[in-house]
Amino acid sequence: MSTKEKIQEESQVDTLEQHLNEIVLFNDDVNSFDHVIDTLMYVCNHTPEQAEQCSILVHYKGKCTVKTGTYDELEPKCSKLLEAGLSAEIV
């Protein structure tokens, strides 16, 4: 006679739900591609490729999400983008 033992594991997953915001960068007729790329690399820690792709999307689509996170994480980054003369907001 064989006995099958069923082990039921209960795992409790503690999830902390945080609403994630986004920094959206908008197109303008003032800033050069190089300035936008350099600023995204410095402020948002983008790779050169990411920054270039975002700048192209902003140019052709009018806007692009450049960073996602909590409001507290994004607020200083958005402020730096604005100080650099870019048009951005947290949504």
TrEMBL record:
GO terms for biological process: protein catabolic process; proteolysis. InterPro entries: ClpS_core, Ribosomal_bL12_C/ClpS-like. The keyword Protease applies. SUPFAM superfamilies: ClpS-like. Residues 20-83 form the Adaptor protein ClpS core domain. GO terms for molecular function: peptidase activity. Keywords: Hydrolase, Protease. It holds the Pfam family ClpS. This is ATP-dependent Clp protease adaptor ClpS. It comes from Subsaximicrobium wynnwilliamsii.
